[in-house]
Design goal:
Distance between the termini of chain A: 13 Å
Low-confidence stretches of chain B: none
Order of helices and strands of chain B: EHHHEEHEHH
Strand order of the largest sheet of chain A: 2-1-5-13
Mean pLDDT of chain A: 77
Number of strands of chain B: 4
Radius of gyration of chain A: 31 Å
Structural class of chain A: alpha+beta
Largest sheet of chain B: 2 strands, antiparallel
Mean pLDDT of chain B: 86
Number of helices of chain A: 5
Structural class of chain B: mainly alpha
Helix content of chain A: 25-40%
Number of helices of chain B: 6
Strand content of chain B: under 5%
Order of helices and strands of chain A: EEEEEHHEEEEEEEHHHE
Oligomer: heterodimer
Number of domains of chain B: 1
Largest sheet of chain A: 4 strands, antiparallel
Strand order of the largest sheet of chain B: 1-4
Shape of chain B: globular
Number of strands of chain A: 13
Chain lengths: 286, 180
């Protein structure tokens, strides 16, 4: 049941952490139930450890972790710890910060990022269906989008391509209907489809009837997991939690995809330097 | 999970109280305003598009509705109506705020260790809202307010617990630094 029982009194290589300075070091220890006094090579703190517990469930009693593969003669080489997890922690804290800022001030970021995308050369397209309150399509409704003025076709559709990205104002007016002004968000690649209802009567109708799919609060929620990932990387513990947090923080969409890209980088780094997390797969806790 | 010792409760209470007051005010706001005066707030999620209506509200209700106006789409069909008034946030957002307060409130009394088991909690929180949100986004189905409430509560509670865990872990990190 416990393979190490057959190796009583054998000397095995193990890793321990000094309870005072948290320095990790490797040492040889007889594999028995006795407690052994150890001196930390860094701070010279004396403490006792036990290679094997009487009860394997009481992991906390044994601050000793067997290093390498005990059944092989050749042990794996000790990899020196790098500062990569610290870098990941900084990256994930950036994801948290920009995710939170984006969630609160996203109107400014929508405008600026769309202006930037427009400057690169991207354009968008809009398909508007104009109906009355009974859902009947309305033809020959005047539609003004920036400098462009046109009318809806016989199916009540106004379609236009190659328009500037960002928040654009649409003005609709038809005989017997109130004039309606509506803000739309024109995005690249995807064709914006929207249905606008006109109210019967004269004069001005309701302004702004923008239809948006989500709330920015959820972006802030996803950002919090970036901060949790930062903590696990700083503590260099619980690699699985760090991986999960970096994956979730991809969906924080801070500064519109910058946060997501940073999260992906953090995820790759965590996977690459996973062995540097404590309680990883490089040893067995007795 | 263990009972939290009193010495570490204070810092969690400091974080819990603003969330508690915030969600309490969200539920009080529709009662505090004249019946039927707030309806059809639906609009643009990232901008303030109900300025005129909100400006006429007394403090602090105007601040709460203004916050909802900026952070939430406030679609009337996706919001709870209390006292014939639409709530400041949509049902999912309201549930998230409520969940945050519940999660933090739970952590005032209990302590959860940050370990691999927390992944299951994350999955429980994120997966339902992910499935419901994506399904609705791509038009596979239209969610209901009850489903939005449940999924929002789950992610909110997990996030509230995560915030408390972060506070605990930061305190531990500081302790280790002081010792070394």
């Amino acid at each position: 049941m416990y393979p190490y029982l057959s190796r009583v009194n054998e000397v095995v290589k193990g890793k321990t952490t000094c309870p005072r300075c948290q320095h990790e070091f490797i040492l040889d220890l007889p594999e028995n139930l006795e407690k052994h006094e150890v001196i930390c090579p860094k701070c010279e703190n004396k403490f006792t450890i036990q290679a094997k517990c009487s009860d394997p469930k009481l992991v906390d009693e044994c601050s000793w972790e067997e290093y390498g593969e005990p059944r092989k003669t050749v042990l794996s080489s000790i990899k020196p710890k790098t500062n990569k997890l610290m870098i990941v922690a900084i990256l994930l804290s950036c994801v948290f910060a920009i995710g939170l800022i984006t969630a609160v001030f996203s109107d400014a970021f929508i405008e600026s990022s769309m202006n930037l995308t427009s400057d690169i050369g991207f354009t968008g397209s809009v398909k508007i269906l104009v109906t009355d309150r009974s859902n009947n399509s309305l033809s020959n409704v005047n539609v003004t989008l920036n400098d462009l003025t046109s009318t809806t076709n016989e199916n009540g559709i106004f379609f236009v391509e190659n328009i500037k990205l960002g928040i654009q104002t649409l003005k609709l007016s038809g005989d017997g209907y109130k004039t309606q002004t509506c803000e739309i968000l024109v995005i690249p690649i995807f064709n914006l489809k929207k249905t606008i209802e006109l109210e019967t009567g004269v004069g001005e109708g309701n302004n702004i009837n923008f239809d948006y799919t989500g709330c920015t609060l959820i972006l802030a929620i996803f950002s919090v997991f970036g901060l949790l990932g930062t903590i696990t990387c700083l503590k260099q513990q619980h690699a699985d939690v760090a991986i999960m947090c970096s994956l979730i923080s991809i969906f924080s969409f801070g500064f519109f995809f910058i946060g997501s890209i940073i999260s992906i980088v953090a995820f790759i780094l965590i996977m690459k330097y996973r062995e540097e997390f404590e309680n990883g797969n490089k040893g067995k806790i007795f | 999970m263990e009972i939290r010792e009193k010495s570490s409760r204070l810092i969690i209470i400091i974080f819990f109280l603003p969330f508690f007051i915030w969600i309490l005010f969200q539920f009080l706001a529709p009662f505090a305003l004249p019946t039927g005066s707030v309806y059809k707030l639906s609009g643009f999620v990232v901008g303030s598009d109900n300025d005129q209506l909100i400006d006429n509200m007394p403090f602090p209700w105007n601040s709460i509705y203004n916050c909802g106006d900026r952070l939430c789409h406030q679609k009337v069909e996706r919001s709870f109506i209390i006292n014939d008034n639409q709530m400041p946030f949509c049902s999912r957002c309201t549930a998230i705020w409520l969940g945050l307060a519940i999660g933090l409130g739970f952590m005032v009394f209990y302590k959860i260790e940050l370990n691999e088991k927390f992944i299951f909690l994350i999955i429980i929180g994120v997966v339902p809202i992910g499935i419901d949100g994506i399904g609705q986004l791509f038009g596979f189905w239209e969610s209901t307010n009850i489903i939005r409430l449940i999924t929002g509560l789950l992610i909110g509670i997990v996030c509230g617990i995560a915030i408390a865990l972060i506070i605990d872990e930061i305190r531990d990190l500081r302790k280790i630094k002081v010792k070394s």
